[in-house]
Amino acid sequence: MTDSINTQEPKFEIHIPDVIAHRGFSAENPENTLISYENAVKAGTSALEGDIRLSKDNEIVMMHDLTLNRTSTGLGPVRNQNWHGYIDGITTKAEPAQPIPRFNDVLDFLIRPEISEGRKGLYMIVDIKANVLKQLLDTYTETYPQLFDQLIIGIWNVEYLNKAKELFSKFKLCFIGLSVSAARTHFIDSVDFLSLPFAALAGHDGQLIIKEAHAKQKRVLTWTINDPLQMKTCVLWHVDGVIGDNVTVMLKNVHHVPKSLATKEEYQEFVNTDTYLASKRRRAYYYIVTKVMQLASWKVVGV
């Protein structure tokens, strides 16, 4: 009796990253607004990302910039304006005009039964733009303890890292930064995620940090990815999450296309058509950008 011949197609390994909605579905909605987050979840995103700042009356406001000027009908630094009586009355400049939400409003959305029960595994990265850690802790512990496993605290510098480790000892932390060397020297052993721009990962050192992070059971995210060719490159880098503005485009190129590869030949064709960094000019551009980002990281956050 002879052994049966195995006619199955040889296996190949492909890593499917999470799709992370940058400030919500911001390609089609005003950034950091409830409608942007709601539509990102409806579209099928794996996770959300958003920015928070503190108002003069100590409300945690969804806002990326230091000031209200770019994205809203308000004026001045967020920290110099009260939420009650001012920020609560302004709207986004982008259409459809939306109110500026507080972080509490976004958390209220996340605990809706259709979200908390229907979208298991959905998480949110909270990009802290100012020292709001104490207010953030109070918000979590007093009102939203059920979200402990879903909220990931984004940290930019070592000072905030030390405070976050002290205040949020049971929470997942994410280094969000520009420099691979800063990630490696100061953060990789203390956080659960490394979030770095595409340019920082494009070179040899960037590829090494992905492998080093995975060896330490850490996850690597990259931003802000809106070009489908970049998305393919990210998939082949084996990053764990791709952060971008257009959820629909990301889902197609980061999830659906890689998952549709059925044979080793199809996978090889997918690899062969990864051309985003084929140009010497583009590689040189990213090399220069990386050096500038390293300098900016040192000047701005001291790492």
TrEMBL record:
Domain GP-PDE: from-to ranges: 17-254
Pfam families: GDPD
Gene Ontology BP annotations: lipid metabolic process
GO terms for MF: phosphoric diester hydrolase activity
Transmembrane segments: none
Name of the protein: GP-PDE domain-containing protein
Originating organism: Mucor plumbeus
